[in-house]
Amino acid sequence: MAGPPRIAADYRCKECGKPLTVRRSKNRIIRFYCVDSACGAGYEYQNGVANLDINLFPKTSDHECPTCQEQGRTGYLIRHIGKDSKRPFWACNTQACPAIFPEIEDSATGSGKPNLEAKPLQTTSEHVCPRCKKGRLVIRESRDQSRSFWVCNQKKCDTFIDDAGGVPDLQQDTTGPRCPLCEAVGQDNYLKLKTIGDKSVYVCQGMDCGQKVEQVDGQPDSKFLSHLNDIGMKFKLAGTRSCTKCKKGVMRVNQGSKGPFLACNRYPKCKHTEEV
């Protein structure tokens, strides 16, 4: 099917009156954009029709940025959608201000508004990302606010690190068994007992692994560990456990309804799987 035309001749920007173009955003969402970058207006693309009633990228809003107010300048909080397209947040529209606030529901209108009582979300820190070496680790909370974790502020980096009392947990706990898959390719990583949801499982602490092993009688499942050792020998003979499709992830063992299988650890970005 042919894509939408680049120039939407039938529409004009409601902010400045200039023509609109049709483009895909980084997360593959089609939108109408004003040709004037100084205007910056954007509108929803709905079955080939522009919804000009709502500017997705306004220059102002009803919510002034409290961080800017403290520093003697004027900024406005603009609503954005997160990477997963499910977690909206509010960010200041001034380049000099890094303030980001989570969203809460306005009881009066039922729509979302910035939670100004919460601390602004971190956009940087003193902790350099151990994987990409370019980004900084920032702390986040799970959706149910039951746990905190650290992620890299670089969009292309998938680093995920547990929180240890307000700092990233970068030191491995060596009291558990070694991860057989990591050991097979010369990496010295250990399994650590963690609580995921309502289950306690052992998880490899390796930055690029994350292999999970279920707990049986207070210990890692010995049968599954033996199975991992056998698979590790195959990786050792091959000299690698890298994903053959994306070349960036590593293969680990997942449990499916039909038994174990190999899958790339970069899922859902990479959906490559292999039979064990």
TrEMBL record:
GO annotation (BP), single: DNA topological change
DNA topoisomerase type IA zn finger domain residues: 12-33, 128-154, 241-274
Superkingdom, taxonomy of origin: Bacteria
Entry GO CC: chromosome
Pfam families: Zn_ribbon_Top1
GO MF, one example: DNA binding
Alphabetical keyword list: DNA-binding, Plasmid
InterPro entries in the record: Topo_IA_Znf
This protein's name: Topoisomerase DNA-binding C4 zinc finger domain-containing protein
